[in-house]
Amino acid sequence: MAELPPFEHTPLDDIASIASRIRTSFLSHKTRPLEFRLVQLRKLYWGLKDNQDLILEACKKDLGKPSFETYLTEVGWCMNDIVFMSKNLARFAKDEPAQDMNLTNKFFGPKIRKDPLGSALIIGAYNFPIQLSLGPLIGAISAGCTAVLKPSESSPHAAAVMQKIIAESLDPSCYTCIQGAIPETTALLDQKWDMIFYTGSVNVGTIIAKKAAETLTPVTLELGGRNPAIITKHADPKLAARRLLWAKTLNAGQVCVSQNFTLIDKEMVQPFLREMKNALQEFYPQGARKSPDYGRIVNLRQFQRLKKMLDESSGKIVLGGTMDESDLFIEPTVVEVKSMDDSLIKEESFGPLLPILPVADLDEAIRIANEVHDTPLGLYPFGNKAEMEKVLSQTRSGGASLNDGFFHASIPTLPFGGVGSSGQGAYRGKASFDVFTHRRSVTNTPAWIESMLDIRYPPYTLKKQQKFASMSELKPDFDREGRPIGWGRWMLGLLGVKGLAAVVGK
């Protein structure tokens, strides 16, 4: 296996000139032709394919990720996104005819043109370092933007591999990678961008949004949230346990979309805990610590933060609880808590901690979920069909997986994103193209239509107003009480009572 490249900070003095180069390349229109974009996507695909072993090794060193997990959620994920985008890019980029309201406007050829936003800054996250950096980059390339990628310094090996792939695969005048931490990110944010795409914490997202607001720069924020799971008395405890345990042990729980706490019907607590114990034994027969399929916490700071949350909890540990700071290991840990004020629930854990809070019924669970001021990125209810519909109709979230843990986030053609405090904007599939694209409204007024346009020129007369109304006014299909009108009543309104009587009389 080739040696992993070193992680080296980009000199601060170089950042302004790099950003300027990327902006200049966009203004040269180099990235606009579809063929250019397709070539870049195809080269990035082979860059990932050829460096797959390095990516697996990098994620192992950064996060203790099993190779299968890295392929599933990082390499294969991005490669599939590229193939999907390559096959559909021409369709996504094609002009759209306007959904016109009347015949007259069709003469002006109204359409929606898909224009790239410009030069983009993409700031990635450490937990899925490849997916959450290259995923947005795929969208930027597809839309015809130029871009600077700033990976997370907390996954330095993966960041260095991405820099290698980008340098070897993509046009360096249009796409580049800048490495560093807070000083380098701050220097990047001081530059002028046409779009900023950030994945990470709410606190940093708020800082970036404030900075972008100074120059009215569009921002897409992919943040986290205190995502609730709900287990009703009609849920299958075995399925709920297996699926929620999987969602909290993938990447050692360092998943922004996994559940942060579980509201469980009090009648289901013991059946659920029994099945959770069985699932833990099934997933990790020799224990999670000895399993090659269980990752580690990314660094000491995050380990200590999680340990502090567990130490300050007033809940009862019912499963797990083992930790080893020297190995950055935290066992999957189920804690029965007494209130939403518990330290394990007040903030997003972003680790393998599974607090459960017993509730009286589904109504109480929904009320508690809605009282959490953060709008969650995901929602995970378990129960029967009627209960699932009730949860969806009475709650809010960026997305939802019914009777599962964040499966909606694995569908490549579903837009993925938050709402409110869990983020703004979405990507994946066509949404990755759309988020870096400006939908530009365009019309073309022919010379021959001038005689029809005389109504818009002064002097304004009653005759011109009547002519305009006849050309443009739409008839309502509802009455004054807001009730819909069928075609018969619509004709009555159109002709008037006397007019209709005259027709009937004939």
From TrEMBL:
Highest taxon, organism lineage: Eukaryota
Sorted UniProt keywords: Carotenoid biosynthesis, NAD, Oxidoreductase
Ranges of residues in domain Aldehyde dehydrogenase: 14-442
Keyword field contains Ligase: no
Alphabetical list of Pfam families matching this protein: Aldedh
Active-site residues per Swiss-Prot or TrEMBL entry: E222, C256
GO CC terms: cytoplasm
InterPro entries for this protein: Ald_DH/histidinol_DH (IPR016161), Ald_DH_C (IPR016163), Ald_DH_N (IPR016162), Aldehyde_DH_dom (IPR015590), Aldehyde_DH_NAD(P) (IPR012394)
Biological processes annotated in GO: aldehyde metabolic process; carotenoid biosynthetic process
GO molecular function, one term: aldehyde dehydrogenase (NAD+) activity
Similarity comment: family membership: Belongs to the aldehyde dehydrogenase family.
Protein name (record): Aldehyde dehydrogenase
Organism: Trematosphaeria pertusa
Organism taxonomic ancestry: Eukaryota, Fungi, Dikarya, Ascomycota, Pezizomycotina
